[in-house]
């Protein structure tokens, strides 16, 4: 019998759990020797992207090579460059520079998203971000390099974008600046948000808590304002106002990885593929999509999965299971994740935890901070390299919620 091939692009939250779920399905069917599972990504590491506003860099990219090995998943260091859905092949650029073609029977696209970088003068040359691990490390090195300066601009950080990432980054920034300039240093952190309210996507529920926390931390907020230019010495806002700052952190939104555009089917305004309940790409039935590259309904009320690890974990499990299930004769699963929660880190002040798409506040202050710490350091991390335990957690209907 010819061996079947499942290829998974990406080893983030969705990719890792897609691989584990595929291995679980193959194991359940007793078909280990008949189906090969390959993950293609630059390294066998799961970057803990929700924590990149922090500086605990040694904790933010756990190695998953032993985990993959123990469940029979092969890792190919490299990147998928081209997807040829018509003939079920992929062009892969390996880390060693070689080019290869992989044939797949089922393919899972789980390559995540990238920070949205519009055409703003100076944005790419003069701003920092926390989108990827290398970006977060570059920001940290830059902040530390300012230690010898005494001017006000050196002690000023402008965070462009007042959404989830912008708020978490800004809330952590005063203590980071004081670690550089001294505990008594007069520092300034300013969030610039083009919407009329801070946290526009978070809605009014947690906003009073967010405003209270940012106020206590000394973070300034400028709403209904838009950055129109960035240079080495600060930013210019629409209307001509200039703010002197040695550090500008861009956090304004994300777009699906460009590979999603190579898969035929409907795409949303973020570049995500619109998938059915089994997470198939609409016009490519051998391709499943998971994580930040898919728009999938979470319930029957019109809500769709957000670009978040919360949804990527479950999307990966369902996509990986279904990719394997079709090859080994198991029932496929339908993606459903009706419970939605958020836990927003608010720096030393604490955090705010909400439930539901209307984001009703359930916990705040240090009580919510304890939950956020558990989520960030335990719940979203990959399991240990224990085959039975890892496969048990890869059930497509397994959902971690508080």
UniProtKB/TrEMBL annotation:
<dbReference type="Pfam" id="PF07992">
    <property type="entry name" value="Pyr_redox_2"/>
</dbReference>
<feature type="domain" description="FAD/NAD(P)-binding">
    <location>
        <begin position="5"/>
        <end position="312"/>
    </location>
</feature>
<dbReference type="GO" id="GO:0019646">
    <property type="term" value="P:aerobic electron transport chain"/>
</dbReference>
<dbReference type="InterPro" id="IPR023753">
    <property type="entry name" value="FAD/NAD-binding_dom"/>
</dbReference>
<keyword id="KW-0560">Oxidoreductase</keyword>
<dbReference type="InterPro" id="IPR051169">
    <property type="entry name" value="NADH-Q_oxidoreductase"/>
</dbReference>
<dbReference type="GO" id="GO:0003955">
    <property type="term" value="F:NAD(P)H dehydrogenase (quinone) activity"/>
</dbReference>
<comment type="similarity">
    <text>Belongs to the NADH dehydrogenase family.</text>
</comment>
<keyword id="KW-0274">FAD</keyword>
<dbReference type="InterPro" id="IPR036188">
    <property type="entry name" value="FAD/NAD-bd_sf"/>
</dbReference>
<keyword id="KW-0285">Flavoprotein</keyword>
<protein>
    <recommendedName>
        <fullName>FAD/NAD(P)-binding domain-containing protein</fullName>
    </recommendedName>
</protein>
């Amino acid at each position: 019998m010819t061996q079947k091939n499942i290829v998974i692009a990406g080893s983030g939250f969705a990719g890792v759990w897609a691989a584990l779920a595929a291995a679980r399905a193959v194991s359940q069917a007793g078909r280990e020797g008949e189906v090969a599972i390959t993950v293609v990504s630059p390294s066998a590491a799961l970057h803990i992207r929700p924590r990149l506003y922090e500086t605990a860099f040694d904790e933010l990219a756990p190695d998953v090579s032993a985990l993959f090995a123990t469940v029979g998943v092969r890792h190919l260091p490299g990147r998928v460059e081209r997807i040829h859905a018509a003939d079920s092949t992929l062009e892969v650029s390996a880390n060693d520079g070689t080019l290869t073609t992989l044939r797949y029977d089922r393919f899972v696209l789980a390559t995540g998203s990238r920070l949205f970088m519009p055409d703003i003068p100076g944005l790419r040359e003069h701003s920092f971000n926390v989108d990827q691990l290398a970006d977060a490390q570059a920001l940290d090195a830059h902040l530390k390099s300012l230690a010898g300066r005494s001017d006000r601009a050196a002690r000023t950080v402008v965070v462009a974008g007042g959404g989830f990432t912008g708020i978490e980054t800004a809330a952590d920034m005063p203590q980071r600046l004081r670690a550089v300039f001294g505990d008594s240093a007069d520092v300034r952190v300013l969030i610039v948000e083009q919407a009329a309210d801070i946290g526009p996507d978070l809605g009014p529920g947690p906003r009073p808590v967010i405003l209270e926390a940012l106020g206590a931390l000394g973070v300034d907020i400028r709403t209904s304002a838009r950055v129109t230019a960035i240079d080495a010495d600060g930013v210019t806002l629409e209307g001509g106002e200039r703010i002197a700052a040695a550090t500008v952190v861009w956090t304004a939104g994300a777009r699906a990885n460009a590979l999603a555009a190579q898969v035929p089917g409907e795409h949303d305004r973020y570049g995500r593929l619109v998938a059915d309940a089994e997470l198939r790409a609409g016009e490519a039935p051998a391709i499943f999509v998971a994580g930040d590259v898919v728009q999938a309904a979470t319930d029957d009320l019109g809500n769709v999965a957000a670009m978040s690890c919360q949804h990527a974990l479950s999307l990966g499990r369902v996509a990986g299971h279904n990719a394997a299930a079709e090859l080994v004769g198991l029932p496929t699963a339908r993606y459903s994740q009706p419970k939605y929660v958020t836990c927003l880190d608010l720096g030393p002040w604490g955090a705010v935890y909400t439930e539901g798409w209307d984001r009703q506040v359930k916990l705040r202050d240090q009580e919510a901070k304890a939950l956020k710490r558990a989520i960030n350091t335990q719940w979203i991390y990959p399991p240990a390299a224990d085959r039975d335990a890892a496969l048990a957690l890869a059930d497509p209907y397994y959902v971690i919620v508080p």
